[in-house]
Amino acid sequence: MHGPVATVHRESGERHMDADNNIYTDLAYQMLILHRNMNISLTKLGLTRTQMHILSYLSRHDVVKASELADAVGISYSSVTWHCNELEKQALLTRSQSATDRRNVHIRLTDTGKAKLRDIREHRKQQLLKLFANFDEAEVHTFMTLISKVNRFAHEMWDEEARTGLPPR
């Protein structure tokens, strides 16, 4: 058992010591809240997290096949089709069949999609500036270092799971 851990009460935001508290449970909860808030923010802008990932990927590639997009985003081919239907309704991307192989669908970001992506990125930048306004530069750098490490280790962990089919030890 670990010693007392300083925690933040979920409803009141007050810090307190709780010997029985599992820091990883609280960390998972805080990450869930952050994830939910980011999703809510995107939803207000008319996109899901997956759709944002699709637009971001398309912004870095001129034309992609639907199968490549599914692999890159980590979703099924049928999910790519559904999301692309929604994004096409908003005129954010276009799809066309390959002239050489009708089974291949080519997807490309439209100018409207590029503009939407720029607007969302600027909106997120402004949100981050507000979010971190009460932190000094050293705290922001520390947070960036920590979140980068978490992302790197998580990526390595999920790569291992995908390779072996088993959770890492």
What's the structural blueprint in terms of helices and strands?
Blueprint: E1 5-8, E2 15-18, H1 23-44, H2 49-59, E3 64-65, H3 66-73, H4 77-89, E4 93-97, E5 105-109, H5 111-131, H6 137-164
Antiparallel strand pairs: 1-2, 3-5, 4-5
Helix pairs in contact: 3-4
Helical stretch tally: 6
> What is the string of helix and strand elements?
EEHHEHHEEHH
Question: How would a crystallographer describe the biggest sheet?
Answer: 3 strands, antiparallel
Q: How large is the share of residues in beta strands?
A: 5-15%
Second rung of CATH, namely the architecture of the domain at 48-110: Orthogonal Bundle
DSSP summary, beta strand count: 5
Strand order across the biggest sheet? Answer: 3-5-4
Structure, explained:
There is one protein chain. This protein is mainly alpha-helical. Among the domains are: 44 residues; 63 residues, Orthogonal Bundle (Arc Repressor Mutant, subunit A). The protein contains six helices and five strands; from the N terminus they run ββααβααββαα. It has a three-stranded antiparallel sheet with strand order 3-5-4. A two-stranded antiparallel ribbon has the order 1-2. A hairpin with a 7-residue loop joins strand 4 and strand 5. Helix 3 crosses helix 4. The protein is globular and about 55 Å long. The N terminus is likely disordered.
